[in-house]
Amino acid sequence: MTATTAPPDRRRWIALYVLCTGMLMIVLDATVVNVALPDIQDDLGFSQSGLAWVVNAYMIAFGGLLLLAGRIGDLVGRKRIFLAGLALFTFASLLCGLAQSSGMLVVARFVQGAGGAMTSAVILGMIVTMFPAPREQAKAIGVFAFVASAGGSIGLLAGGAITQSISWHWIFFVNLPIGIGTALLAARLLADEPGLGLGHGTDAPGALLVTGALMLGVYTIVKPAAEEGWGAAPTLLFGAVALALLAAFVAREATARNPLVPLRIFRSANVSGANAIQILLVAGMFGMFFLGALYLQRVLGYDELRTGLAFLPATLVMGTLSIGYSERLVTRYGARATMLPGIVAIAAALLWFARVPVAGDYWVDLLPVMVLLGLGAGLAFPALMNLAMSGARPDEAGLASGLVNTTAQVGGAVGLAVLATLSATRADRLAQQGDGQLAALTGGFHFAFLIGAGLAAVALVVALTVLRPSRPAEAGAAASGERAVGGGGRGERRPAPVRAEAA
Asked: pTM for this structure?
C-alpha cells in the first residue's frame, strides 16, 4: 500500500516521518560542516577569521528568522512555509556545493540558514495539529525530539565519512535528493490548512524589530563576543543595540492591534519555563558536543570518523528513550516529572566529562558520559517540547514552534561562545603556569564542562520552582475529545483542535 493510498491514521505517521526527515536535514547541516572546515579552508583560500563565517552566516540567518517564520506560518499556512523553506534550503545547498569562492559560499550559507529557519519553524506546530490526542502527541513529539537533539552527533559522523571518502562539496550535494524527495512527499501527505490571513498579524514594524534584534544578537554572540571577549567595546555596543531592538519589539507587541507575536503566549508558566530550561540545557550540551569533539581530536588523536562514532552511543540511547518510551512516561507521570531525572542525568554527564584525563580511555572515561547524556536528553527534551507547546492555541502553534526552535538556537550560540571562550582562557592560563599543551587543553575543557553542569543545575532549579506539575490523568482527555490547556495544572479544558488529515 503506497503512502497516498494508506489509511488516514497511517498517513499521519508517514507525514510525521517526512517532517522529521526535513528537520534532520536541517539539523545535520548545522554540524556536518564543522568537520569539513579544514578542507574548505584549503580549497577556497579562507583566512582563519573568514572561515568562521561559513558557520556564522548560517547561524545568523537561521536564528534570526525562526520566530518570524513560525508566525508567518500561522498566517499564510504552515505547509506553504515548510515547502518554501525546503525549496530555498535545497537550492542554497546546490549553490554551496558548487561554490568556487569564499564569498559565494558565505552568501549561499546565509540563504541556506533562511531556508532552514522557514522549514524547521513550523514543524512542531504541524505535529501538534496532526496529533491532538495527548498520548499520540507525546509519542510524535518524542520522535521529533530525537531527530532535533540527536542530529548533531549524526552530523559529526556523516560529515567525517563524506569528507574523507569523497570531498567537502558532497556534504551539501547530499541535501539535493533528500530535499526533493521530502518536498514531493510533503506536498502529497500534509494537509493544506489555510492560515489565519495576513490581516490577523500583518505587523511589519514588529517583524523588522524582532528579526533585527535576533540577527544582531546572534551576530554579537558568534562574532565580537567569541573573538574579542564579552567585555569588549564592539560586544557591548552590538549587544546594547540588540537589547534595545528587543525592548522596542516587546513594547510594539504590547500595543499593536494585530501583533506579530501575541505576548499572551508567555503567560503560561510552563511555556515560559520550558523555553528558559531549553536555553540552559542546550547551552551546556552544545558546548559539550563541540568541546568534546575537540578533546577527542586534539588530545586523544581521534580522526573525524572515529570522533563521530564516539558520540554514537549517546544517539542510540537517546533514540531508544525518545521514540520507545517518552510517550509512555509523559502520559503516565506527566512532562515535568519525566524531565527532572533527565536534567539530573545531563548534569551528571557533564560532571563526569569534567574529570577525563589527558590519556583518557574511551570505555572507562567517555562511554559512561555518552550513555548518561543520551539518557538525559532522551528523557528531558521530549518532555520539554510537550511543555513548550502545551500553552499554545491551535492558531498560534506555528509561533510556539518557532519559539522552541529559537530558544534552542540562541542557547546553542550562547553556550558555544561562552564555553569555548572560557575554555580557551583557562587553557592559556594553565599553559602560562607551566602545564604541557595537552594538559592545558584538557584543563580548559574541564572548566567548560563544569560551567555546563552548572547551567544544567540552574535548569533543574527553574524546573522545580517555575514549572507546574501536569496531571498524568490528562492523557485521558483524548477519550472525551478534550485537551488540557498548558499553563499549569489548573484543570482548565478546551475542545481539542480538529485533526489535520491529508487531503
From this structure: 0.77
